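## retry 2 of 3
previous attempt timed out at serialization; input unchanged, resubmitting
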Amino acid sequence: MNKSVDKSPVVPSIKQAFLYWLKLGFISFGGPAGQIAIMHHDLVENKRWISEKRFLHALNYCIVLPGPEAQQLAIYIGWLMHRTMGGIIAGSLFVLPSLIILMALSYAYIQFGHLPAIAGVLYGIKPAIVAIVLFAACRIGTKTLKNKMLWIVSILSFFAITVFKLPFPIIVLSAAMIGFLINRYYPFLLAHALQATSQKKYGEAIIDDVTPTPAHAVFNWQRFFRVLLLGLVIWVIAMAGLTLIYGWGTLYTQMAWFFTKAALLTFGGAYAVLPYVHQGAVTHFQWLTPAQMMDGLALGETTPGPLIMVVAFVGFVGGWSHDVIQSPILSAILAACIVTFFTFLPSFIFIFVGAPFIESTQQNLNFTAPLATISAAVVGVIVSLALFFAQHIIFPHGLEANIDVVAGSAIFVAGFILLKFKPNIMLLITIFAAFGLLQSLV
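## retry succeeded, writing output
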């Protein structure tokens, strides 16, 4: 056994947790798959703050929620470790570095336009991101797909979204139903899979498989309704304040209302919410143009944090072009902050309200079996999304056009580097950003 595994993990202080979540906010590239893989590597394998079984149990709950599952997982683990304040710190720091970076990039985008150097950097980073997501899908798959049944669920979900274009919520519900039916009629199949999940050990964890649920995480209905009411009150006060100051039909209030709906009504992560945001922000409200929306997505893909942070770009550009307070830069910053607040507030409420109940279901196969099949289905969806983006990078002008050999080779090289050397994600992105910049200057 590795010597580091022999040592008992040290319970982190709130300051140590703060520093880790701050660091994660700056290095969490690669979308939800990459971010979840980074957290697994850090918190399960290295720091051993939480066991793999408890980590996956929390992840499976976050997957079925609307909103960014990686950020919700950070809130969950932060809450489990250090109560409500820990969850607030983890969830906020997961988003704030990305918000600051994206606002700076948005300002540069508006001021300097499409410089060849910027286009070159984006060209180099995109293949690396595809490789990161594929690599993360492989890592998550090795943790999740523990028997043939779960492999079948994953493969079916891949074809469901790739070939039949089924909506993500339907895939999730179908996977949950499969898990429920298998557990009811053939329980030994998934019971064996769940036991296998917990067999791979990285040593004793602070929150281990058999660690009792902390007192603050024990479910009770009184706390459930109290937290739910508090979350709703915070939302009402923020919305009422914007309405009283600016009026209901103005930019800031409409952005707050629109992105609240986006956070609540769209499942499947950033890729599922983007069509809804595009339809509302571009077509209906005309806060920005279709070209600006596509550029914002490219910027969002190359910054740390949830991919859904592209909404901050939408807010920034909309605030700049529809100046409300007679200062384009201040109007843009305020709009980006409003959009971010109303997009991510529901994630905190979902975790603080629902996580205690999920903690009470750890040994209940009636809940864990459907969650396990959902997790298997998501692996197939992640692979499908990675291949979708790879296709658009390798064939930027359509399948009938010429292949971009350089971009395709870059994906292969990035994947080889990840498999062979397992470098820091930020280092890999920096290397490929430099490659793209040199490519643009040649």
